[in-house]
Backbone:
């Protein structure tokens, strides 16, 4: 696939949204603002609700940031035309909240959390579900890979090498919560399109 062709099929608002998200993540990281925006259970309980969203756009370190931006870049290049810009915005917000609210209620041992990987799992699940309608083989392959990965993480912990790559702990339940929100969102939008 030629890069020029890829760029032409990306909706300008989607391109602006995802590149803006990347830029914001980089700026917050380089300005050392992670503590002001990360998931912090005590500060959320004190009323800093914005952290339920902002925790997803700050990162543990530069390696963590780069890996998540690579994932977001893959979504942008291969799947950005699968949804309309407003659908992407809704999915980003829903997945962000699903990840942090899930951690808040179901993982009381987690006091701090950062990163976009949970949200990325939601984005990739929806991309796979839409891809199945267009190109069934590649869509099902992506979905199976994601499900196998999530299953491994739930029974065995983080994927081998992932914690050393980011020099930190991987909160695998965030991936599950993001994926479940993506599944829910994907079922809603694909059902609506099938009904039409």
Residues:
């Amino acid at each position: 696939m030629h890069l020029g062709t890829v760029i032409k099929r990306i909706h300008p608002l989607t391109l602006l949204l995802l590149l803006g998200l990347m830029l914001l993540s980089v700026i917050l990281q380089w300005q050392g603002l992670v503590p002001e925006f990360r998931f912090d259970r005590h500060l959320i309980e004190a009323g800093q609700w914005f952290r339920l969203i902002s925790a997803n756009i700050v990162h543990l370190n530069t390696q963590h940031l780069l890996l998540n931006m690579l994932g977001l870049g893959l979504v942008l290049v291969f799947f950005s035309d699968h949804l309309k810009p407003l659908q992407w915005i809704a999915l980003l917000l829903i997945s962000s909240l699903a990840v942090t609210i899930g951690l808040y209620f179901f993982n009381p041992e987690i006091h701090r959390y950062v990163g976009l990987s949970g949200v990325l799992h939601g984005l990739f699940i929806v991309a796979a579900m839409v891809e199945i309608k267009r190109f069934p083989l590649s869509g099902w392959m992506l979905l199976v890979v994601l499900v196998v990965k999530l299953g491994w993480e739930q029974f065995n912990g983080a994927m081998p090498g992932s914690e050393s790559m980011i020099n930190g702990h991987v909160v695998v339940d965030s991936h599950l919560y993001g994926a479940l929100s993506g599944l829910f969102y994907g079922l809603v939008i694909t059902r609506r399109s099938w009904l039409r």
Observations:
- The chain has eleven helices and two strands.
- The chain has one domain: 3-195.
- Residues 3-195 form a domain with the Rhomboid-like fold fold (CATH 1.20.1540.10).
